[in-house]
Automatic annotation (TrEMBL):
<keyword id="KW-0472">Membrane</keyword>
<feature type="transmembrane region" description="Helical">
    <location>
        <begin position="42"/>
        <end position="62"/>
    </location>
</feature>
<feature type="domain" description="YetF C-terminal">
    <location>
        <begin position="92"/>
        <end position="159"/>
    </location>
</feature>
<keyword id="KW-0812">Transmembrane</keyword>
<comment type="similarity">
    <text>Belongs to the UPF0702 family.</text>
</comment>
<keyword id="KW-1133">Transmembrane helix</keyword>
<feature type="transmembrane region" description="Helical">
    <location>
        <begin position="68"/>
        <end position="86"/>
    </location>
</feature>
<feature type="transmembrane region" description="Helical">
    <location>
        <begin position="12"/>
        <end position="30"/>
    </location>
</feature>
<dbReference type="Pfam" id="PF04239">
    <property type="entry name" value="DUF421"/>
</dbReference>
<dbReference type="InterPro" id="IPR007353">
    <property type="entry name" value="DUF421"/>
</dbReference>
<protein>
    <submittedName>
        <fullName>Uncharacterized membrane protein YcaP (DUF421 family)</fullName>
    </submittedName>
</protein>
<dbReference type="InterPro" id="IPR023090">
    <property type="entry name" value="UPF0702_alpha/beta_dom_sf"/>
</dbReference>
<dbReference type="GO" id="GO:0005886">
    <property type="term" value="C:plasma membrane"/>
</dbReference>
<keyword id="KW-1003">Cell membrane</keyword>
Length: 186
C-alpha cells in the first residue's frame, strides 16, 4: 500500500530495480569489452558520450517507455560508436574533426589575451588555474595550455633551469609564440 500512496506500485518498483541492475550490468560488460577509455573524459566527444551513457542508463532504469532490452541495445550502439571514433581518431583528419586543438594561454609570464578570448576564459579564470597549480610568481611560468579535455596545464621551471622541450607543444595553437620566447631566453 505504501508505494501506491507515492504514485508507484510494487510491480513498477520491481521493474525499476531489475532495469537498473540490467543497465548497470550492461554498462560494465560493454566497458570491459571496449576498454578503459570508455569513461575517460579525454575529449569533447568522450564527455558527450559519458553524459549519454548516464542518460540512457537512467532512462532505462526509471521509465516504462524504454524497456531493458532497448536500453541495452542503445548502450551497445553508443559504446560501439565511441570505440570506432576512438580508433578513427588515429587518422589526423578525424582527430581534428572530433577534438579541439590545445591552445597556448601564456608564454612565459605573458598572457596571450587573444587566445584567452578564444578560450572564453577571463584573467580571473587564468589566475585561479595558476594558483591551483601552486604558482606564486608569474615569472616562474613557462607555459600555460588549455588542453583538449578542457583542463589547464601549467608548466613552470626555475629561471636558470633547462629549457622547455618544445616538441611537447607540437599541435598546440599559438606554440609559435612560445618558440620565439624560448629562443630569446637562450
Amino acid at each position: 500500500m505504501f508505494p501506491a500512496e507515492l504514485g508507484a506500485s510494487w510491480t513498477a518498483l520491481a521493474l525499476i530495480a531489475v532495469s537498473t541492475v540490467g543497465a548497470y550490468v550492461a554498462m560494465i560488460v560493454f566497458s570491459r569489452i571496449t576498454g578503459l577509455r570508455s569513461f575517460a573524459q579525454m575529449t569533447n566527444f568522450d564527455v558527450a558520450a559519458t553524459v549519454m551513457f548516464g542518460s540512457i542508463a537512467a532512462t532505462t532504469a526509471v521509465t516504462r517507455t524504454t524497456p531493458l532490452l532497448q536500453g541495452a541495445v542503445a548502450l551497445a550502439v553508443l559504446f560501439t560508436v565511441q570505440a570506432l571514433i576512438a580508433r578513427w581518431r588515429l587518422a589526423r583528419r578525424v582527430e581534428s574533426a572530433v577534438d579541439n586543438a590545445p591552445l597556448l594561454l601564456m608564454s612565459g609570464s605573458t598572457v596571450l589575451e587573444e587566445n584567452l578570448t578564444t578560450a572564453r576564459m577571463t584573467d580571473g579564470d587564468l589566475r585561479s588555474k595558476l594558483r591551483l597549480a601552486g604558482v606564486t610568481r608569474t615569472a616562474d611560468v613557462r607555459a600555460v595550455v588549455l588542453e583538449t579535455t578542457g583542463t589547464v596545464s601549467v608548466l613552470t621551471r626555475e629561471p636558470d633551469g633547462p629549457p622547455i622541450d618544445l616538441d611537447l607543444f607540437a599541435g598546440v595553437r599559438g606554440h609559435e609564440q612560445l618558440i620565439a620566447d624560448e629562443s630569446r631566453r637562450r
